[in-house]
């Protein structure tokens, strides 16, 4: 058989094998079918509700700092002053459960001079206490009382709520109303029909404010006998929400 004849026969075989595949493609047979689904159009919106509320609780952080030549003497002096401070708090009507030790520290104190080794001056003892005051009319007088009893360091004061649930629930209602109003506005502007809420998420909520500076000016009362003025102001309780609404054409 000539080389030309073999080439023609090979070409015929290849064509014969290719025909079923072409026929299969023409008949539309396929082992897998993929269907694309159109995503439901939606509005993704966010809103918030905010409530102003008067605080009903105050927290004061203060301390007693003493220095002495020896560690034992510094701790002893500190304990004596703090005992007087706690007694003053009890006389001011502060319950024992509202008095909490928040820090206790003893450290060596050195004097430093150039080109000389540090020289031990003595020891410093610090005892810090956090006090919760549930009657805001007593904040100023309580601060004066503890300073008179031996407190020589006040770290700050903060105001808060004993129970924030009512304020949070009110803020939630305002947030939902704001979200609904915004959704209706967008739907009207777009000329589409507003559907139901697909998802709803919440963030925010009540957070106690950080302590504000409260300087211990020889806080013991002034010549007129007036107590330290303290203004509670207002707190802001905010709830943030995000929602997804279905919309129709």
Taken in chain order, the helices and strands follow as HEEHEEHEHEE
Could you give the count of β-strands?
7
Low-pLDDT stretches are 1-28, 215-224
Report the portion of residues in β strands.
25-35%
Describe this structure in words.
By secondary structure, the protein is α+β, with helices and mostly antiparallel strands. 33% of the residues lie in helices and 35% in strands. It has a four-stranded antiparallel beta sheet. Strand 3 and strand 4 form a beta hairpin. It starts with a helix and ends with a strand.
What descriptors fit this protein?
alpha+beta, four-stranded antiparallel β-sheet, disordered N terminus, 249 residues
Short summary:
By secondary structure, the protein is α+β, with helices and mostly antiparallel strands. The chain has helices spanning 3-27, 71-91, 139-149, 165-190; strands spanning 42-53, 57-68, 99-111, 119-133, 153-160, 193-204, 235-248.
List the topology elements:
Layout: H1 3-27, E1 42-53, E2 57-68, H2 71-91, E3 99-111, E4 119-133, H3 139-149, E5 153-160, H4 165-190, E6 193-204, E7 235-248
Antiparallel strand pairs: 1-7, 2-4, 2-5, 3-4, 6-7
């Amino acid at each position: 058989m000539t080389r030309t004849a073999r080439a023609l026969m090979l070409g015929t075989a290849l064509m014969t094998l290719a025909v079923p595949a072409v026929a299969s493609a023409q008949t539309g047979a396929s082992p897998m079918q993929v269907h694309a689904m159109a995503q439901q159009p939606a509005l993704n919106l966010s809103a918030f509700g905010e409530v102003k509320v008067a605080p009903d609780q105050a927290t004061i952080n203060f301390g007693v700092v003493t220095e002495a030549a020896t560690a034992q003497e510094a701790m002893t002096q500190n304990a004596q002053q703090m005992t007087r401070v706690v007694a003053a708090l009890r006389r001011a009507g502060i319950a024992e459960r509202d008095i909490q030790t928040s820090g206790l520290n003893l450290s060596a104190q050195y004097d430093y001079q150039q080109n000389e080794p540090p020289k031990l001056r003595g020891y410093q003892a610090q005892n810090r206490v956090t006090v919760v005051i549930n009657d805001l009319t007593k904040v100023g007088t309580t601060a004066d009382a503890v300073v008179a009893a031996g407190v020589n360091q006040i770290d700050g004061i903060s105001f808060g709520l004993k129970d924030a649930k009512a304020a949070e629930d009110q803020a939630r209602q305002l947030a939902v109303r704001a979200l609904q109003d915004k959704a209706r506005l967008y739907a009207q502007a777009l000329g589409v029909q507003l559907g139901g809420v697909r998802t709803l998420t919440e963030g925010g909520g009540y957070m106690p404010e950080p302590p504000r500076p409260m300087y211990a000016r020889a806080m013991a009362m002034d010549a007129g006998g007036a107590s330290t003025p303290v203004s509670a102001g207002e707190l802001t309780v905010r709830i943030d929400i995000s929602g997804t609404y279905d919309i129709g054409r």
